[in-house]
Specification:
Layout (H helix, E strand, L loop, with lengths): L4 E3 L1 H9 L3 E4 L2 H6 L4 H15 L3 E8 L2 E4 L3 H8 L5 E3 L4 H7 L3 E3 L1 H10 L4 E3 L10 H4 L4 H8 L3 E4 L8 H10 L4 E3 L19 E2 L3 H13 L6 E4 L10 H17 L7 H12 L3 H27 L1
Parallel strand pairs: 1-4, 2-3, 2-7, 5-6, 7-8, 8-11, 9-10, 9-11
Antiparallel strand pairs: 3-4, 3-6
Helix pairs in contact: 3-4, 3-13, 6-8, 10-13, 11-12
The structure holds pseudouridine-5'-monophosphate and manganese (II) ion.
């Protein structure tokens, strides 16, 4: 194991016993959801994974080490630290060198999961090409990571704060397959349907696992996106979320919000503008992804 990586006792035991492990990110805890729902959700998501017969490994940088599997106290520390850094690929060495507390994005969590030999990672939504990205070059490092690091990322697609069409084009160019669960189209986070086709519909975990094993057996490095739509009963009305997204984007533009601050700003504004209802949808979709991710980890383990 890499000198910077430290497994928790629960994760180390799972590894020793050959049980399936599912990685979880921590930016969603520190920057994606407000206190105290962030902590409650982090714990509930871990419990969904355990109930499905896998072991959760929430990842963060604490005390100069990449920690794979956190205690309840550590989850709480992240949930209550507004100054936790948001760590993507470029930022990881800084947090390790300085001992700063850091929450990992999709990109950084993929890197850490791969260092810990974990193949499945569950999140809410991936980053993507921002609207106007062709001019601003604001393209999340998550997409580059998906192109290079072999981890399957289970998500509810990506938010329509992004340009979802350009996001799918970028993934295609970089050879990142997008599998869709239960429907043909790519999911749009708060709503099930982006109106854009995913590459392959694959409803059951065994088929997803065979696809992923075949990709990696061919030496095709890089990740796989598993797009799992939010259940209809918990989705937001599309017209409402579209209007609110447009307003939040206009405010970000007006206030000159830039760089890595854009995504947390938009998430917080959308929550406020929906009177907190978007948060309930966000929580529901992450739990739904945890179930699918745990089943995928089990299927991969069985086929190994
Ligand atoms: N999308 C969400 N919730 C989130 C994020 C994205 O719906 O919490 C977080 C993830 O950690 C993702 C990161 O990796 O934002 C992307 O940030 P950026 O666009 O700055 O790359
Ligand atoms: Mn960005």
């Amino acid at each position: 194991m890499n000198e910077f990586v430290q497994l928790s006792p629960e994760v180390a035991a799972a590894r020793a016993d050959g049980r399936p492990i599912v990685a979880l990110e921590s930016t969603i805890i520190a920057h994606g959801m407000p206190w105290p729902q962030n902590l409650e959700t982090a714990r509930e998501v871990e419990d969904v994974i355990r109930a499905e017969g896998a072991v959760p490994a929430t990842i963060a940088v604490i005390g100069g080490r990449i920690r794979v599997g956190l205690t309840n106290e550590e989850l709480q520390q992240l949930a209550q630290s507004p100054d936790a850094m948001k760590l993507s690929r470029r930022d990881l060495p800084f947090a390790l060198a300085t001992g700063r507390l850091g929450a990992t994005t999709v990109a950084a969590t993929m890197i850490c999961a791969h260092l810990a030999d974990i193949a499945v990672f569950v999140t809410g939504g991936i980053g993507g090409v921002h609207r106007g990205g062709a001019e601003s070059f604001d393209i999340s490092a998550d997409l580059q990571e998906l192109a290079r690091t072999p981890v399957a990322v289970v998500c509810a697609g990506a938010k329509s704060i992004l340009d979802l069409g350009l996001t799918l084009e970028y993934l295609e160019t970089h050879g990142v397959p997008v599998l869709s669960v239960g429907q043909d189209n790519f999911a749009a986070f708060f709503t099930p349907d982006s109106g854009l086709k995913a590459d392959f519909r694959m409803d059951d975990a065994d088929t997803q696992a065979r696809f992923i094993r075949a990709k990696w057996a061919l030496g095709l490095s890089g990740g796989v996106v598993v797009s799992n739509p939010v259940p209809a009963a918990q989705a937001m009305p599309r017209e409402e979320i579209d209007a609110i997204t447009a307003q939040a984007l206009a405010e970000a533009d007006h206030q000159g919000i830039q760089g890595k601050a854009i995504t947390p700003f938009l998430l917080a504004r959308i929550k406020a503008l929906t009177g907190g209802r978007s948060l309930a949808t966000n929580i529901a979709l992450v739990k739904n992804n945890a179930r699918v991710g745990a089943q995928l980890a089990r299927a991969l383990q069985k086929q190994a």
